[in-house]
Write a structure and sequence with these properties.
Elements lengths: L6 H9 L5 H5 L3 H10 L6 H4 L2 H9 L5 H8 L4
Length: 76
């Protein structure tokens, strides 16, 4: 549901103890940069794709353009 989080990064998030949008929604810039720099495959996606911004919307029950595409199927 978050742009840039495919199956590989979802597993990396889960391995880091992250399972819910509200967990990403409270990340500070330093948290996002740490994940980008330390998790194989992240390669700057957290900051570039604005995961925290997307997670804040999704955690409140909202939707994003990408989340709408996921709900329609065919993504990942």
């Amino acid at each position: 549901m978050i742009k840039g989080v495919g199956p590989v990064l979802e597993k990396a998030l889960n391995a880091s103890g992250v399972f819910h949008f509200d967990q990403v929604a409270v990340w500070k810039k330093a948290d996002a940069v740490w994940f980008d720099e330390n998790v194989k495959g992240a390669n700057g996606r957290v900051v570039r794709d604005e995961w925290v911004k997307q997670a804040k919307i999704l955690a409140k029950g909202g939707t994003t353009e990408f989340a709408s595409k996921v709900k329609k199927g065919g993504v990942y």
